[in-house]
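QUALITY CONTROL LOG
STEP: pairwise intake check
CHECKER ROLE: data steward
CRITERIA: each record must contain a sequence immediately followed by its structure tokens, with no blank fields

ENTRY 1 OF 2
RESULT FIELD BELOW
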Amino acid sequence: MDILIISSITPAIFVAKREVSGWPVFGPLARMGGTLFVDRGRRTLVGKTTDEIQSALDQGALVVLFPEGTSSNGQTVLPFKSSLLEPATRQTHALFAGLVQYQIDDGDVGEEVCYWQDITLISHVINLLSKKTIRASVRFTQLREGSTDRKELARQLHSEILRLKEASAF
């Protein structure tokens, strides 16, 4: 859902786990949209992905990645992984952190909107489509200062997301 919501706001190139490229419907759509796929099981390929991110940034694209590296029920903000943030440490352009939150009237967002447990994608989508209304709130904040250290940058971005979450309307 996050990718659909963000895509409806602005053109962007997303970074996703390699497995997404093989998903029915979503995989072909992601490939057509220029998604960059990272093989999380082979750390030696992280350099290739960061080069692809750098190339997209050099071409003026907005690159969106989810630095938690996994999905959750949205109640907490997991620690951010820093390996794919290397290109952002070299940039002179603005960096933003974004928070997407959901609200539904008939169920639990963490269990029914967030795709994170051992449920199959098809079951999740069918359940999601059964919801009467799903409201999304998106908030962005510009990072005041970047960092040339990717681990420090990950901490800064994480802090900004926590700040947005504390101030959120949902």
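ENTRY 2 OF 2
RESULT FIELD BELOW
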Amino acid sequence: MVVGVGGQGVLFLSEVLGGAALTDDLNVRVAEIHGMAQRGGSVTCHVRIGSNVHSPTILEGSADLIVGFEPLEVLRSLKYANRETLIILNKIAIVPTSAYLGVKYPAEDRILKEISRVSEKIMVIDAMYIATKTGNPATQNSAILGFISALKGIPVKPETLKKAIADRSPKKYLDVNLRAFELGREKN
């Protein structure tokens, strides 16, 4: 499952992952679920890869991996997690507009505590830090893809992911996206 807010690259990451899985002859289904359809709204993508995938959506309590571009969105997705779910958490918070109405954004340690009640398999990445090393903060999604590609048990080959990034990136952003991918791999 890939979660975040509009404009972070959740859809790009899901499309790359799904496209790469197809290239590697894996059975894959991808389903997008949008909250507010524009920047800042909640975005969730279900990505199912396996030998016998019929439904595009993940059942509650059955996600193997939750990739969170934004900490509060990870909290929203915890109903899909279980004790064995690996949770990748990008530490960069995007404060919702409700915070301007007096709602406090929780501290990172509080968010991690809440997540650990469901799964203690949590890996934190600072994708913004990696992306700024490429000179383009919009490459956070490629940095997270690189980080994921270095995990044990990911069925999609890193080379296939890089090709899928190349197929879906605008030419003027291709080099920085591939650089972010490699830097993300190094962080894992």
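INTAKE CHECK: passed for both entries
DESCRIPTIVE NOTE, ENTRY 2: The CA atoms of residues 148 and 154 lie 7 Å apart.
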